[in-house]
Amino acid sequence: MTIPLRAALYLRVSTARQAEHDVSIPDQRRQGEAYCASRGYQLVETYVEAGASATNDRRPEFQRMMEAGTGKPAAFDIVIVHSFSRFFRDHFELEFYVRKLAKNGVKLASITQELGDDPMHVMMRQIMTLFDEYQSKENAKHVLRAQKENARQGFWNGSLPPIGYRVVAAEQRGAKIKKKLEIDPLHADTVRLAFRLALEGDGTSGPMGVKSIVTYLNARRIFTRDGGRWGIGQIHRLLTRPTYIGRHEFNKRSKAKVLKPASEVIEVETPRLIDQATFDAVQAHLRSRNPKVMPARVVSGPTLLTGICFCAACGGAMTIRTGKGARYRYYSCSTAARQGETGCRGRAIPMEKLDDLVAGHLEDRLLDPERLSEILASVLDRRQDRAERRCEHIAELNRRAAEADARLRRLYGAIESGVADLDDPALKERIKELKATRDQARADAQRAAQAAQGFGAAITPAHVAAFAREARERIRLPGGGYRRDLLRALAQRVEVAEREVRIMGSKGNLLRTLAGAAGVKSATGGVPTPVLNWRKGWDSNPRWSRPHAGFQDRCLKPLGHPSAPDVI
Prior knowledge:
By secondary structure, the chain is of the alpha/beta class.
């Protein structure tokens, strides 16, 4: 008994409007089910993409189908589409995903464009896809041209309007309904409040900055249009958007978010929500508070932990904030800075205090010869194993080269003695094969030997002790600062929690730094990776009994609790 092929239907329409009116989807489904029935396929799944472009793969149902089709084992044997344009309108992407399915034994079939698997039909499919891609780009060009003309006439083109406005029907032209913006009374007051706070404050203080406005709105549960919390970026865009003074800019950016030339930007007249004087005053206020007008040393001076310091509560980066005219500097949770306490209750920590805590812990705990040796023990063992395997591999390559060379000499001897005829084509081919094998083995052995140079030079306890001593001396600068490059070679992530600071790092990075200081070739080889593998510190948590690939230390000196111990 023949087992029927398992089939999956992929149905797609390009726009949400088509999906709402069931354009094409029911017909695609009917034809797909009839196609499966006529060929005896077992329909196991149907994927419906309602309103998604086929020019890219950012389609949830498409990705779900690909995951099922490339899984082990595949959930189906064949994917059925109405036409190849339903699957993709990009030639390269279609071929990429067709081959990805084919590697797992899954085929792609079109109901209206039936093709085989031979080279001629593959070429025909590629030509069809090229025409689909061309048609898609031409359609996009014509659509943009129509949208620009629609904007010139003062109509809205259908995107989500800015908060404070809503879309209403303006007039009907044939079957099409032209739309415009009008003020939304439900959210207009929120926009006016944001501008008033920026210009006048809340009555208890002067003009407020963007961050203060975010905190004010979120604390009073004045939410965004979709019920979410405000962020710094949203408020800044709101305060700088000329739509609120009656000038909406259409076609300002490309799909890649790149600003277009001013000649291509179309201004659409909109109802005024904010008067021109208020808008101009707020822009001047924002410019005066722009960090770029502050002294360069404040915004671009080197700091020790930026980029590697994170809030343990939310995972957000700890960034530098200033107070009292930039006289005081703090590491502060970026999530809390953008959204206030509603986003994260992360704390702000004086920069000097956290820098000193981290550097002091590395000096006192990590840069101890015995602890370094303990941390690197498993890595050094693996390094030795790798060196031994390299030596075995080199020996095997040399053996293969010698064996091929010996066979060549025997053949040459047979030719000289007249046993073999040099004009024999088979003999010539055999000599060619043996030469290629010998030369390739010699070249591979030479490359492997060059790569293995330095692996025999072990990192001794003397190297570890010398590195620890020199690093402790060099980590602090004469003026009271720290060697940022040295610290980041020792630790790649610092997490700040309520009661502790966790310092984490990669054994591979640590070994590379030590090997470089000792003049020994890196044991780990390759480019340093940003992926960190951690383990609990052996002395900080004795419950962990197995060695792991990284190291993690804890500074249990809570900020604000000077009586607590430095580390455990």
